Amino acid sequence: MASGDLERGGGSNVKNRGNSYNQSSSSSYYVENNEKQWTSWLVPMFVVANVAVFVVVMYVNNCPRNNQGFEGGCVARFLGRLSFEPLKENPLFGPSSNTLEKLGALNWDKVVHGNQAWRLITCIWLHAGVIHLLANMLSLIFIGIRLEQQFGFIRVGLIYLLSGFGGSVLSSLFIQRSISVGASGALFGLLGAMLSELLTNWTIYTNKVILVASGSYLLRNAMKGNQGYR
């Protein structure tokens, strides 16, 4: 009788321990996944803003009317005013350098001697062409949305803008003979934030492969930038 109670008690204890273990495991899993997930809206807004600015730039560029100095006609003339400059002038399918400069591209001489410091900000939102725009926007989506979901729009927005400004300052120091446009400085800031967070929380991080691949993609894209295209 006693042994039966002991057996029943033992079974109950084992069962309780099992339940306790399961609850502990569930609790531990819950703690790791209890991190607040923000809704990403700022990064998509940045993407829309960059695309909208590019459309405006192409409209102002008006290749069919203004292209006079280069051989060959405008590319994709069926787009009308939005058609691209000849590939000899811009191989990235975009506007002329004169249009970019007129609309706010970074120009060292005008920033330093023309008191046009605002170009340090406006150049972040300009892109040299469709290829340049797509590469930067894909990088922004891969990196920025994940960061905004985890850290919120305020932190990600500050990182993006401050890094973009810092990248413009560096570009003005090292690229003085040509104009500079693009958001690579801002993207490098987001990449640095992502790598820092990834290394700090590697053991509990999900989708490591996706993040590493995204970081590699952004780094490769940024390293290809030259001639003032950032």
From TrEMBL:
Principal location class: membrane
Region (Disordered): 1-24
One Gene Ontology cellular component: Golgi apparatus
Enzyme's top EC category: hydrolase
GO molecular function, one term: serine-type endopeptidase activity
Keyword Amino-acid biosynthesis: no
An individual GO BP term: proteolysis
Membrane-crossing residue ranges in chain numbering: 38-60, 124-145, 151-171, 178-196
Pfam hit, one: Rhomboid
Reactions mediated catalytically: Cleaves type-1 transmembrane domains using a catalytic dyad composed of serine and histidine that are contributed by different transmembrane domains
InterPro entries according to UniProt: Peptidase_S54_rhomboid-like (IPR002610), Peptidase_S54_rhomboid_dom (IPR022764), Rhomboid-like_sf (IPR035952)
SUPFAM superfamilies: Rhomboid-like
Catalytic activity, EC: 3.4.21.105
Topological category with respect to the lipid bilayer: Multi-pass membrane protein
Domain Peptidase S54 rhomboid: 115-211
Compartmental location: Membrane
Keywords tagged on the record: Hydrolase, Membrane, Protease, Serine protease, Transmembrane, Transmembrane helix
Similarity section: Belongs to the peptidase S54 family.
Function per UniProt: Serine protease involved in intramembrane proteolysis.
Name under which the protein is recorded: RHOMBOID-like protein
Organism whose genome encodes this protein: Gossypium raimondii
